[in-house]
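Need tokens for this chain, all 356 residues.
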Amino acid sequence: MRAIGEPLRIEEIHIDTPGPREVLVRTAAAGVCHSDLHILEGSLPQPLPAVLGHEPAGVVESVGSEVRHVAPGDHVIGCLSAFCGTCEYCVAGRPNLCEGAATMRRADEPPRLAKDSEPIAQFAHLSAFAERMLVHENALVRIRPDVPLDRAALIGCGVTTGLGAVFNRARVRAGRTVAVIGCGGVGLSIVQGCRIAGAGRIVAVDTQAWKLDLAARLGATDVVSAAEGNPVPRVVEITAGGVDYAFEAIGSPATVRQAVRMTRKGGTIVMIGVVPAGTNVELPGADIVLREKTILGCMMGSNRFRTDVPRYVELYRRGLLRLDEMISARLPLERVNDAFEALRRGTAARSVIVFE
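Here are the structure tokens for all 356 residues:
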């Protein structure tokens, strides 16, 4: 990426050799996430030029002298929640809030990525839209080798975000009622997490009929089309007064307000969708206070990915987490811009870039 609003370009760049705690990974697959589209459209800041992509899986090619977690030949999933292991958030058990500054190269060191003498910025500690990634070992988790890497890639961001919102942040209890606003990759993962958690009723809300059909196949008990008007009255009617948990997975002020209004007294709203930088959300204060509603922010599923991801892999292996149905298309790197166009049009749950 060299400019906001322009298509991504395929270029040959230089990837440095691994430093002491760095790992060179041959990328097998990388999911195309809406957060990358936010960067492309300028709604989230990112130094340029940069290599995007942050939902990868691959195979370790080589490691630095002090790497202990992985070895050449290991299958790995990359996660943007690179953690230092020593900051206040890490030692308090919240590594997803570590900004990972200590895992990056210092300004006086050569860049990991460059073209001629021009440094190329690394996006989200990963830069997965490339044949190889050079990353800190604390951005990786080793997984068993019998899981297809094109499916495993989804776990690195979308699935970890969705399941973690259910298991780690909201801690949905069996029998409770749930609404999920937005049924893209993250929303579909939330639906599945709620099913696995034993939610009694799961209401999926979206404007796209095909996404609602897919949500029903993956665990939603009810679907509401927001294309037909305000979904709040219908959700309240279906659930006899509102849901216990409302998950907002779009990042729009309007849908955040809908999540608040469709939640019953004492209920919980979980904000997961990325609201564009500089955008404020106005909420009905009296509704929140007098009805004792709780609003939670959730960053990357409040993950501890070194322990969460292997569990999610096991859920997939046992057939409880369904990843195959979430993949709308598998595309070569040359078609990455087509994948972003599908995101804009709302015609893909998750496209995956696959490498030979």
